[in-house]
Design a protein that fits this description.
The complex is a heterodimer of chains A (about 300) and B (about 600).
Chain A: H1 16-19, H2 26-31, H3 34-55, E1 62-69, H4 75-78, E2 81-88, H5 95-106, E3 125-128, E4 131-134, E5 147-150, E6 157-159, E7 162-163, H6 166-174, H7 196-203, H8 213-217, H9 219-223, H10 229-240, H11 247-257, H12 271-275, H13 282-295
Parallel strand pairs in A: 1-5
Antiparallel strand pairs in A: 1-2, 3-4, 3-5, 6-7
Helix pairs in contact in A: 6-10, 10-11, 10-13
Chain B: E1 2-9, H1 13-24, E2 29-33, E3 49-50, H2 59-69, H3 76-95, E4 110-111, E5 121-122, H4 128-142, E6 146-149, E7 151-158, E8 169-176, E9 182-193, H5 214-222, E10 226-227, E11 232-238, H6 249-252, E12 256-258, H7 265-268, H8 281-293, E13 303-306, H9 312-330, E14 339-348, E15 351-353, E16 365-367, E17 372-373, H10 386-401, E18 420-421, H11 452-472, H12 479-493, H13 500-517, H14 531-555, H15 573-576, E19 578-583, E20 590-595
Helix pairs in contact in B: 1-4, 1-10, 2-3, 3-10, 5-14, 12-13, 12-14, 13-14
Classes of the chains: A alpha+beta (about 300), B alpha+beta (about 600).
Chain lengths: ~300, ~600
């Protein structure tokens, strides 16, 4: 089964929030740069967290989470449903902490990917209260209850919160995501030089943790399965903008991303940029690649 | 059944580097890994890669610093190999596009790190491990190396000769997490274990939930000794509520530790009058806990790490990642207030006994990275020495398994007649109790049959039976309960400060965990993505590994590096310049010793007082 369907009647349960286009309206985004908007939102979030901490409203309470359940093999779970768990709140508790508690204390079959607990392995992107977030870096105190936790939309669900990542990996691999400079300085200890400015230019793009939150939030990717998607295009950006690769390779990279299902599909809705847990300005990177492709006089669709 | 020349188990830094090397040497190599490669815990490494790259530095200085840092428990051939290979293996990463931080002239940057006589820690912001992991995975994609991801390796297929030194490894048995299928993977040339650390044996750790010592446990039960397991590094700067790591890079850049009285205690209380905050990790961890124990901790729990004086520009430039971690996981803004920190389990210096080519005493079985003990780190690992270990020894294991000649190893492996044996009376009988009805507490859970396929098929059958057994039970105890009990016992009594009574108490709890494990059952009835089953397997591994840590800690009655004993608070070179080895012996572990090798290629390292 899939959560790809946008129609409410095919959604696992009636949930208008989940069926909507993920967060915030286009108007709001047009007002300021997405990076600023995101920073603002972060600050607001911080303030909210501080308020929560000050009032310690949740301390000693239980938190109500509603978790999506599905298992193709188990009769009671073949029909998708939501299970309610009430988890004792401790200060600093995250969505992932709550899931771990629910699994270890209430239901060992509750299934989700997670590993590092510190937002670097990219395993635990979920759809939390209608938005793609990493479970480990989302504080429960920032969320309204019940906290609704679903698998990433637009991906096949394997079981509970686990989605099939194959398509995402295929798209990542399709942009030839590896350094291709063959002409290296002579000598095994001779380095290529890279200016600080250039390293700074690619820095944000190198932070991608392959969590697939961006791809899941993107309407274009939902409608066009062949669309490379924000993460893969960002990966291409990471190499195309790295001055250590020469012009010929860069041109080869631009040809890959300006194909029919490449950068031109992006309609600059900024949803990817909004949800990226590593604050990568994905939409800006896509726009910049469009400009580079035009500069190179590459044919475009 | 799947078949390849070389099977690499685990796809973090060491595994990826091993796979690339084996592929370069012409082998058909495949990776079998419970996590997709980019999810591996190498990605969490922050600090950097030590390598002597610059004028004024050379590999001998790196080797000297490492030997001193190891408190003279590292083996010279291993340390010298690391120091010699690190420069070219680091530059290879640059050639593969790794986004290192850069100097004005465009060369890669290096910074000071604890215990180093030269600023030789090569870094990429405070997220060096993330970049290392992704660059290596990119190279695996480029070469088209096959990756079986989300396949959990349950056991090795090893022949069952009485002497482990005569055994041969023929492959692994793995479980496809997505479908639940249990299958054999035949390895014609070798199996390389690169499964990372066993941090989940403790309950306050910087390690990922996946760091469960799987490679340690399956190699141990197949007959490979585990070496120096008592040496566990507790990192001095972890966030109190989660164990999330704050890089040593913060102190490398000039961050300062304060107690609740605002004293810079590393100097003011004389813990390290020269190096201060940049003393070796074990020194700083003990200093912090001493401050807390003597009533000078903040909220009786932690100390403060302050970097505000570095200025926002420098912090954002070099330590930006730290700001995010402190904010997201502790709710602290590192630009305006000091960060709370306390020691947390971070790294296991010990591991699967190997030589400098990555080979164990079992033919065809290799180990590299944190799961291995070559031994480079001895009693204490220096910051910035884990990542070069991954690339250097990952590469060597990959080459050697693929058949490339690396010259004869200097380090001997495996139990031999005549070694010094430990005869201390233990408070419990360590070792396997076995699952009640499977009777599979045997040595190399596999083949009675002599031929290769027979060994593998036997091992597959055994694991299928075990899965059936665990899944068919519908009552008993849950792995989570046992795991939590084990973790708490280890953190309570086999922590930074250790004494005989405490360690014995922990061993008794470990024994209880073993007995409870006889009644373990898997509640999730599904074959699809059954993490309950996987974690039940992992918990068994944690029990075996935790027991070796506690046994090593019990017998080693001295204070060396990360291992401190209340009863004998000195480094006792007369009696303890030797490695602790623990052999499984078919479920009845024994402890023995091997002398440290202090003779290097051109010189002998004289044990000196380790002061900073």
């Amino acid at each position: 089964m899939s959560t790809q369907q946008q129609e409410p009647e095919e959604a696992p349960e009636t949930d208008p929030e989940a069926a909507e286009v993920p967060p915030e309206s286009h108007e709001m985004k047009a007002q300021s740069s997405p990076q600023q908007a995101r920073l603002q939102r972060k600050q607001d979030g911080l303030a909210a967290r501080e308020r929560a901490a000050d009032e310690t409203e949740l301390e000693g309470d239980t938190v109500h989470i509603k978790v999506f359940r599905y298992d193709p093999e188990v009769e009671a779970k073949q029909e998708p449903r939501f299970d309610d768990f009430y988890v004792p709140y401790t200060r600093g508790m995250t969505v992932l902490d709550a899931l771990i508690y629910a699994r270890d204390e209430f239901d060992p079959s509750l299934t989700f990917r997670h590993s590092c607990r510190q937002a670097i392995c990219g395993s635990d992107a979920f759809f939390v209260n209608g938005s793609q977030r990493l479970g480990c870096k989302t504080q429960l105190s920032e969320l309204s209850q019940p906290v609704r936790i679903e698998p990433l939309p637009h991906q096949e669900v394997v079981k509970d919160l686990v989605v099939d990542m194959e398509h995402f990996y295929d798209q990542m691999h399709s942009v030839e995501p590896y350094f291709q400079q063959e002409d290296l300085p002579a000598g095994e200890l001779a380095e290529q030089r890279q200016t600080r400015e250039n390293r700074e230019k690619v820095k944000m793009s190198t932070r991608c943790i392959w969590c697939a939150a961006c791809m899941s939030s993107c309407n274009i990717a939902a409608g066009d399965n062949q669309y490379l998607g924000p993460a893969a295009i960002n990966k291409a950006y990471r190499f195309a903008m790295d001055e250590r690769e020469d012009e010929e390779i860069k041109e080869h990279r631009l040809r890959i991303i300006e194909q029919e299902h490449g950068v031109w599909r992006c309609q600059t809705q900024f949803s990817c940029t909004e949800v990226c847990p590593k604050d990568i300005p994905l939409t800006e990177h896509i726009q910049e690649l469009k400009r580079e492709a035009v500069k190179k006089n590459l044919k475009f669709w | 059944m799947y078949e390849h020349d070389v099977i690499v188990v685990g796809a973090g830094g060491a595994g990826l580097r091993a796979a690339i090397a084996a592929h370069e040497a012409g082998a058909d190599v495949a990776m079998v890994t419970k996590l997709h490669p980019v999810r591996s815990h190498t990605g969490a490494a922050e600090g950097g890669i030590n390598a002597a790259l610059r004028e004024g530095d050379d590999w001998e200085l790196h080797a000297y610093d490492t030997m001193k840092g190891s408190d003279y428990l590292g083996d010279a051939p291993a340390i010298e190999t690391l120091a010699k290979d690190a420069p070219k293996d680091t530059i290879t990463l640059e050639h593969w596009g790794m986004p290192f931080s850069r100097e004005e002239d465009g060369t890669v940057s290096q910074r000071p790190f604890g215990g180093l006589s030269f600023p030789r820690t090569t870094y990429a912001g405070a997220e060096t491990g993330h970049h290392l992991l992704h660059v290596l995975y990119e190279q695996v994609v480029k070469r088209g190396i096959q990756v079986y991801d989300e396949w959990y390796v349950m056991n090795l297929a090893v022949s069952d000769e009485p002497d482990p030194n005569d055994r041969t490894c023929h492959g692994v048995v793995a479980y496809d997490v997505q479908s639940g299928a249990v299958e054999g993977f035949k390895a014609n040339r070798g199996v390389i274990l690169a499964t990372g650390g066993p941090g989940q044996a403790f309950d306050h750790t910087t390690n990922a939930v996946s760091c469960t010592g799987d490679g340690h446990a399956i190699a141990y039960r197949a007959g490979v000794p585990l070496e120096d397991m008592e040496f566990v590094q507790f990192h001095p700067t972890t966030l109190p509520s989660t164990g999330v790591l704050i890089s040593e890079g913060v102190r490398g850049e000039g961050g300062i530790l304060y107690n609740n009285e605002g004293e810079r205690f590393m100097f003011e209380h004389g813990y390290a009058n020269n190096a201060g905050e940049l003393a070796s990790r074990d020194v700083v961890s003990r200093a912090e806990l001493t401050e807390v124990n003597e009533g000078r901790g903040v909220e009786d729990e932690y100390v403060h790490l302050d970097m505000r004086h570095l200025g926002a520009e420098r912090i954002v430039d070099r330590l930006e990642n730290i700001l995010h971690l402190a904010e997201d996981f502790e709710g602290v803004d590192g630009l305006v207030e000091p960060m709370p920190v306390k020691p947390g389990q971070h790294y296991e210096m010990g591991g699967i006994e190997t030589d400098e080519n990555g080979e164990t005493c079992i033919t065809g079985l290799y180990a590299a990275g944190e799961c291995a003990c070559v031994s480079v780190h001895g009693a204490n690992r220096l910051g910035g020495n884990a990542l070069p270990e991954l690339v250097v020894f990952g590469k060597r294991a990959g080459y050697h398994a693929a058949g490339k000649d690396l010259g004869e190893a200097q380090i001997e492996t495996g139990y031999r007649e005549g070694v010094e044996e430990e005869d201390m009376e233990l408070p419990i009988a360590p070792g396997e109790t076995g699952l009640a009805e499977t009777g599979d507490d045997a040595v190399a859970d596999g083949g009675q049959l002599a031929d290769t396929d027979g060994v593998l098929e036997g091992a597959v059958e055994t694991e299928r039976k075990r899965v059936e057994y665990l899944m068919e039970r519908d009552e008993g105890i849950q792995h989570a309960e046992i795991r939590s009990k084990l973790q708490q016992a280890m953190t309570a009594d086999v922590n930074v400060f250790r004494n005989e009574d405490g360690i014995k108490r922990a061993l008794r709890v470990i024994r209880e965990c073993r007995e409870e494990y006889r009644d373990v059952y898997v509640a999730d009835p599904s074959r699809t993505f059954n993490t309950d089953l996987q974690m039940t397997y992992e918990t068994r591994n944690l029990i075996d590994v935790a027991e070796t840590i506690a046994l090593g800690a019990l017998v080693r009655n001295e204070f060396r590096g990360a291992h401190w004993r209340q009863e004998n608070q000195i480094r006792d070179d007369e009696n303890w310049l030797k490695h602790t080895l623990i052999s499984w012996n078919g479920g009845k572990p024994s402890i023995w010793y091997r002398p440290v090798i202090l003779e290097g290629e051109d010189k002998t390292y004289e044990p000196k007082i380790r002061s900073y």
